[in-house]
UniProtKB/TrEMBL annotation:
One annotated GO biological process: positive regulation of transcription by RNA polymerase II
Gene source species: Danaus plexippus plexippus
Keyword annotations from UniProtKB, A to Z: DNA damage, DNA repair, Nucleus, Repeat
Molecular functions (GO terms): ubiquitin-protein transferase activity
Xref: SMART domains: BRCT
Predominant place of localization: nucleus
Membrane-crossing residue ranges in chain numbering: none
Limits of the BRCT domain: 62-120
PANTHER family with a match to the protein in the record: BREAST CANCER TYPE 1 SUSCEPTIBILITY PROTEIN, BREAST CANCER TYPE 1 SUSCEPTIBILITY PROTEIN BRCA1
GO cellular component, one term: BRCA1-BARD1 complex
Subcellular location(s) of the protein: Nucleus
Designated name of the protein: BRCA1-associated RING domain protein 1
């Protein structure tokens, strides 16, 4: 199995043209061999069922916190859509499976249901397909979504609440950005004095879009002056950054 996966990955490196569904199926089979679950469901019945099933399936393990060991994040969802949260955002940038809690509830001591059928469709709404996009990006062995982006976080020295489930700090944002391939700057960049080694372009910028030449970003909470909108340097709201993660795509500026 691993040999087949390695050969398929080699094809991706050489051509980027391998059938992603085929590659996804190979990875899914491999991911089934060792399932490390972190559960954030609000329902005790889900947690209890998960612990019970882990005693009957040698490939199912429960993690007490989100770490690099986690392969599957178990969430509550409604019609395939889960609420955006810090755990979900971290799950997306880590390219783990984000699975409906129904997977555990429908599984039994004799059989674990195929988790692929229970992957959430969207984050917040059905058009925000970050979980799947991130997995596919990993399977293709492409850089993270913020690759080529140098980001300065303006005035995030205190907690900032976007929603009840997303309360940000500078440390949390820094980890999300770095895990998604970006560089976090300690000082405010000067648009007229960009170091040569930082004169790069975002790998995932849309062809013909507004970010194809943009290497530097200032991310702010409410307002920032001056509102840079140069081809290589932009000031954008924190909502833009979160949307990029939720969709796992480098979104066009608002």
């Amino acid at each position: 199995m691993k040999k087949i996966l390695e050969d398929a990955s080699e094809n991706v490196i050489q051509t980027q043209g391998v059938n992603i569904s085929y590659l996804s199926d190979l990875y899914t089979e491999l991911d089934s061999e060792d399932i490390q679950v972190f559960c954030v469901s609000q329902f005790r019945t889900v947690h209890n069922k998960l612990k019970s099933l882990s005693r009957h399936h040698s490939n199912l393990h429960v993690e007490a916190k989100f770490s690099k060991k986690v392969t599957h994040l178990l969430v509550d969802e409604d019609d395939g859509v889960c609420t955006s949260s810090l755990d979900v955002l971290q799950g997306i940038v880590s390219s783990v499976w984000i699975i409906s809690a129904q997977w555990i509830l429908k599984s039994t001591e004799e059989k674990l249901m195929p988790f692929k059928s229970y992957e959430v469709i969207g984050v917040g709404n059905k058009s925000y397909n970050g979980p799947r996009n991130s997995r596919y990006n990993k399977y293709k062995q492409l850089p993270g979504i913020f690759n080529g982006c140098h980001i300065y976080l303006h005035n995030f020295n205190t907690k900032y609440e976007i929603s009840k489930t997303i309360v940000l700090t500078k440390a949390i944002l820094t980890k999300l950005i770095m895990d998604a391939g970006g560089v976090v700057l300690r000082r405010v960049p000067n648009p007229e004095l960009i170091p040569d080694e930082e004169k790069v372009v975002p790998y995932h910028a849309k062809k013909g879009g507004k970010l194809v030449e943009c290497s530097h970003f200032i991310i702010f909470k409410n307002m920032y002056e001056p509102m840079y909108n140069m081809s290589h340097f932009k000031a954008l709201p924190i909502g833009w950054l979160i949307e990029c993660i939720e969709k796992y795509e480098l979104c066009e500026p608002w």
